[in-house]
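Record 1 of the preview.
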Amino acid sequence: MIVELDTDRCPLIIPDTYGSGFHHEISDDMWEDFKRLMVDKAKEAIEYALKFTEDFVDAKVTMGKFGSPRWYNFETDWIEFTLEFDDAVLDSIRVKADDDFFKYAKRNFSSHPGFASFYPIEKDEFTKALNGNGRDDLAVAMIILYQFEKENNLGNYHQAYLDDVWEYASGNGYTIDEEVSE
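->
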């Protein structure tokens, strides 16, 4: 099965150039290279995160493009990616989607002020999505995040990704050199 995702729908990492301050630190002539760096580092981070899931350890990750919103008031940057995995994974997910999973889904993916949810948080919606009658991308994203967060703190992982990007960028000529005035 092939599922198309992005870091908005499946936020294993958050490639935030605005809130992180990267947009002030990266030189204009290096911006496109920097976005490619963020995609490369995202692939490493997503592949590593999938090692902590029960069902997606062997999934093949293919990276897509880096995108930025027109206005940062309502959303942030994203990176598209595709997961390819055996169809048998869906059977495993159906079995493992227990009461604890649906409690997690309701807690993390329900609508709230500022967020209108399209995630299949009810068991029947979730099953329909996995059967091809809905948003299989969102159902897969939910189970990946649930399995990852059983053992890991997602916020710490987001920061580790940004730290890795920054460490590489600042040591490899991506940043603006500050001139010291006398």
